[in-house]
Amino acid sequence: MILDSQNIYSDSQAVTASAGSTNSIDHGIARDLGTGQRLYLVVAVTVAFTDAGSDSTVTATLETDNDTAFGSPTLAVLSLPVFAALSAIGATRIGVLPPVYVNERYSRVYYTVAGGNLTTGSFDAFLVQDIQQFVAYADAVTIS
Predict the structure, then answer these.
(1) CA 6, CA 28: separation in Å to the nearest integer?
(2) Mind listing the pLDDT tens digit for each residue in 84-114?
């Protein structure tokens, strides 16, 4: 997985209440992202969540808009599975960007916190062409 600094939405961004990502991406005249080449939205926990009642959840959603203030964003271009309370460092959610859905100039990730009161927790979020999904399995070869 190769990270491009221009495609990073959040870099260890603290999230304890609903908020937009620290960075938004200006796609300029590039539209219809994901057509011809798959793009992935990756959101990963970088600081473990703590929550007094263990009942908080965080949902990361990709939004687009035609202005940087995101006054009227297109909601839920892509919504990732929920991060549960007490999610550990390294917990990751990955979504495939649907072709043609990012058709406005700017995009960002919006974090929606529900069901409790988070006291700590941070995320990385970025767009990539390839995801890191290598898993090492036990060797099934027996040498005698």
Answers:
(1) 12
(2) 888 889 999 999 887 766 678 888 999 999 9
